[in-house]
What does this fold into?
Amino acid sequence: MSDESKVNVRQAIVDGLASVLVARYPGRFSDEQVEQIRRQIGQLVEAGERLRAFHLTNSDEPEPIFRAVLGQA
It folds into this structure.
């Protein structure tokens, strides 16, 4: 997928989600707030793209979390 088509898809997602929000809650947001919401949705979409770009293999496992508890033996 070319960079231009990725931008077009990203913009379509942002437009769609923002329009759903405005339609669901009419009159609650000023134009400035809608633009801020659009920017935040765009950031979330970009973060999702970066996560999807990180390739994992079938043998990759989550990093174990170690928590030391004081006072217990």
Remarks:
- The two ends are 56 Å apart (CA to CA).
- The first helix runs from residue 3 to 24.
